[in-house]
Amino acid sequence: MIQKINSFEEYQSEYSKSVSNPEEFWAKQAETFQWKKKWNKTLEWNFDEPKVEWFKGGKLNITENCLDRHLEERGEKTAILWEPNEPNKPAIHITYNELHDRVCKFANVLKKNGGKKGDRICLYMPMVPELAIAVLACARIGAIHSVVFAGFSAKALAERINDSQCNILVTADGGFRGAKTIDLKTIADEALENCLSIKKSIILKRINSEVSMKQDRDVWLHDELASIDLSCDAEEMDAEDSLFILYTSGSTGQPKGVQHTIGGYMVYAEYSFKNVFQCEEDDIYWCTADIGWITGHSYIVYGPLLAGATTVMFEGVPTYPDAGRFWEVVEKHKVNLFYTAPTAIRALQACDIDFVNNYDLSSLRVLGSVGEPINVEAWEWYNEHIGKQNCPIVDTWWQTETGGMMISPLAGITELKPTYATLPLPGIQPCLVDADGEEIFGNDVEGNLCIKYPWPSMLRTLWGDHERCRQTYFSTYPGKYFTGDGCKRDADGMYRITGRVDDVINVSGHRMGTAEVENAINEHEAVIESAIVGYPHDIKGQGIYAYCIMETNKAVNDTTRKEILAKVTDIIGPIAKPDKIQFVPGLPKTRSGKIMRRILRKIAEGDTSNLGDTSTLLDPSVIETIKKGAI
Ligand code: WTA
């Protein structure tokens, strides 16, 4: 098992070792895992193609590292502590022994239904233990999992299934989220009408709803488990075989299938988890993310289980039955390490403080934040009311593509600075570059954030589109990985992420491509063209502001707005619904036809005093009209 860093001096010396000899540094970490065969070469790379290979020739199965290797020492320890949506229903403790057995059985169910090494298996599930088990079951048999967040629509699900040609879909009859139930099976059925690659669908019974089962395709999970073998040998995998695909938004309309491989991801997931949270053997750790996002992959499932920790998995939402739910769960399970998103903090901050004060939060030792820049008010509130000024807040900057936390304090080890992600983890070499692509040296500077050197859990490609991977991440600044984020480095060398510099917006910590939302809006029959920008939103961080040009002969009103929202919900899902829709006669475009989003952003922010250079606009007069109609 990985040994964690214990002091600031040790952080400094490990950091400098990781830069002067990265291969030796990572080989030492990798040796702490269980390999079926050791690798021949620690790292081979170039950022031009790009091609990155860690631990080449090494053979392993990640589930033996998450499960089997713990059984002797902590077989009876709780691996997953599941808290259901309803507070009066019992929590479920799944030990490492039990999790091992359930993963093996589930793996055999996948095999029985045609799943095998290299297949893509789609998981469209609520936050129940079976989701984590299905993830690990895929890894056990060497299939590549593609988890699709259960808030996505049928069309979005179908698009993702088709892109990677999944042959099995694991889903549920439905899911509970707060006061709502979601009919996942109905949505999945609609999606599967357009997914010819899916041969089998395995259905978990969760809400006991009436569902229709398609003959020869749909099977109930409980029926399959009833007569299945308990033992399942872990498939021998190459370190560079794929572990999972996770779709995320980019600046074009099409989601990208970010592809991660097994060996490097595994090493970095445990390394970063242990060091950032400083997790101790008996800690109860809770990350409130959904497994449908990268945070859930790396820091609900893989990181904590690799570390042999107890990971809490929560089915519900922070405000059900009331805004005290997170804190009730912290008290109930004596949570020590708590990891959430700024949007959740802001939403709870807006509620009565009694929702916090009614609970005993003295078990908390470390607080974490992820997903978007945390504003200073939210940071202070988190520190004051949740941490009682006694818990370091680790503001962890990273991305779906980075696989793990990249810039973050190590709790209690490195210094904190509110709203700063602070310092890079050992092995991570960030740099800032200017508009000309030149690296900016020294401190007290600002630029675009890049990473200069490979790290084990970085993406390897985008599924089916290596060229897009090269263009998106490796071509803007040749020889460097470009994050898409702007960033400051202060006088002390600490990093503060300032937000996206591309056409991606971050709404409640969810990444959204402007083009993706625009395409959905344009599906409305009366919309001729649209443009989306982000604007500051008290709870969501960024809200979505839509400018729409409509057919002139159609009357537009609130019904039209509702129809547009319904379109977006249908094509992407409710998370992408615009907060504001303004009907406009035209959009500010350059002579070459490019929409000047900078101007639209300013108007959406309500700051029209200085719109900057508008001389390149085709028709500057349109701006006045848009300004007048701003919401
Ligand atoms: C943003 C989530 C500031 C950033 C793990 C990044 C952050 C994008 C932080 C990735 C943070 C994430 N401070 N910004 N601590 N964490 N971001 O892929 O813009 O869903 O590029 O991964 O979220 O979002 P993703």
Give a brief rundown of this model:
It is built from 20 helices and 31 strands.
Distinctive features:
GMP Synthetase, Chain A, domain 3, 7-stranded mixed β-sheet, 8-stranded mixed β-sheet, globular, binds 5'-O-[(S)-ethoxy(hydroxy)phosphoryl]adenosine, Rossmann fold, 631 residues, 2 domains
Mind explaining what this structure looks like?
By secondary structure, this protein is α/β, with parallel strands linked by helices. The protein folds into two domains: 8-250 and 261-451, 3-Layer(aba) Sandwich (Rossmann fold), CATH 3.40.50; 504-628, GMP Synthetase, Chain A, domain 3. Residues 248, 293-295, 369-373, 395-400, 421, 483-485, 497, 500, 506, 511 line the site of 5'-O-[(S)-ethoxy(hydroxy)phosphoryl]adenosine. 5'-O-[(S)-ethoxy(hydroxy)phosphoryl]adenosine (WTA) is lined by residues 248, 293-295, 369-373, 395-400, 421, 483-485, 497, 500, 506, 511.
Number of strands: 31
Biggest sheet: strands side by side, in what order?
A: 12-11-8-6-7-14-15-24
Unreliable stretches, pLDDT < 50, 5 or more residues? none
CATH topology of the largest domain: Rossmann fold
| Tally of structural domains | 2
> What coarse outline follows from CA principal-axis ratios?
globular
For the report, how would you describe the main beta sheet? Answer: 8 strands, mixed
- Mean pLDDT value: 96
- State the distance separating the first and last CA atoms: 55 Å
Summarize the amount of helix as a percent range. 25-40%
CATH superfamily of the largest domain: ANL, N-terminal domain
Bound molecules: 5'-O-[(S)-ethoxy(hydroxy)phosphoryl]adenosine
CATH class of the largest domain: Alpha Beta
What structural category arises from helix and sheet content? alpha/beta
Rg over CA atoms: 24 Å
Strand content range: 15-25%
CATH architecture of the largest domain: 3-Layer(aba) Sandwich
Secondary structure tally, helices: 20
